[in-house]
Amino acid sequence: MRVLIRTTLGVETGFGHLRRCLSLAAALRSEGVDPFFAIDGPATSAEYATAHGFEAKHVHDETGSAAETAGLASRLGATVIVADSYAFDSGFLRDLGKCGAAVAVLDDAPNQELPVDLVVNPTPGIAAINYADRTSARLLLGPAYALLREEFQHVGRRQRGSRVDHVLLTIGGSDPRRLTERLIHWTRQALPNAALDVILGPVSSGIVDSEPDELTTLHHGPSSMVHLMSAADMAISGGGQTTYELAACGVPTIAIRIADNQTANLTGLQNAGSLVGVGDARDPDLQTSLQSEIVRLARDETRRRAMSAAGQALVDGRGASRVAREIVTLRRAA
User: Fold this and answer.
1) Could you give the CA distance from residue 162 to residue 146 in angstroms, rounded to a whole number?
2) Residues with Cβ within 8 Å of residue 214, at least 6 apart in sequence
3) Looking at residue 107, what is its pLDDT?
4) Partner of 301 at 20 to 30 A CA spacing, among 40, 50, 114, 239?
5) Per-residue model confidence (pLDDT) at position 334
């Protein structure tokens, strides 16, 4: 069985789409499926997938016609196309299916018609009624279907310490607003004695050039995140895919909305109790809001423990395996 995974990568779009598609591809391979990536973005986009052992091709039809992707699916003999990009509108998705393959879409907000066969949306609190007038597809909804790397399936329950000695800072795969350096400075002001691990994503080069101080360590595109997350007493994170990884590791998280499409995700996770949001990256009072919450959460051991337990109860890290098994059985609707 061949599955074509059509996704995107870039400074503005970030690394989250490709990251969760890579997690799904690894789970598909465990099911005996042969995934192939078609990625739009910089000319080197395909290299991120090939570095993980997958065949990949750089494509150009990120908007408008889906002809290039549909033609590639036909040549590969793909029976399923997985689509993941905010640029794919209803017409694009409909055109993908014209090659005869079933179409699965990774969605974050039910805001358009989805003429596909399978919809995956891990947002906490999402329900079938949200898609009632938008699709007749099979729905896989909620955090049980969050697409995380295999390493997150084996995270144990950690007893959190009484103090905040280690803080993890991660905006995501990219940092288009160049927020990371400011966050380092603001966090250091609020917690002058804490060790700070800063994740610089694959498309965040040049955001921070050198180690800011002896208690701060920069990690450039680490291949594994579990050990860094598991060591953290608290995290400051952008509102994308990383928030599910932090929940799986039970890390109490302060989250910042980097893009409008993160709103539903952040609202759902905050309502579930695994994180607290402090606003948007564009807010003029972000520094004040963030530093107040850092101090407040660092002083409240009971609240941190509750957030840790809520995150791990919500996300068990096995979502990619569940979705892969559904895709293996997927056939195009008549």
Assistant:
1) 30
2) none
3) 95
4) 239
5) 46
Q: What is the DSSP letter of 9?
A: -
Where in the chain are all domains bearing CATH 3.40.50.2000? Answer: 155-314
On whether the 2-148+317-328 domain is CATH 3.40.50.10700, my answer is no
Tokens describing residue 329: 């059985």
Give phi and psi for 323, each to the nearest 5.
Answer: -65, -40
Contact between 174 and 12 (Cβ < 8 Å): yes
Measured distance CA(219)–CA(197) in Å, rounded: 7
pLDDT of residue 10: 74
CATH code that applies to domain 155-314: 3.40.50.2000
Task: Give the pLDDT confidence score for residue 119 in this predicted structure.
Answer: 98
**Which tokens in the block code for residue 280?**
């948007």
The boundaries of every CATH 3.40.50.11190 domain in the chain are 2-148+317-328
Q: Residues with Cβ < 8 Å from 7, sequence gap 6 or more?
A: 17, 18, 21, 37, 38, 39, 40, 82, 83, 84, 85
Q: Is the pTM here over 0.90, yes or no?
A: yes
pLDDT in tens, 214-269: 999 999 888 789 999 999 999 999 998 999 999 999 999 999 999 888 999 999 99
pLDDT surpassing 70 at residue 283 = yes
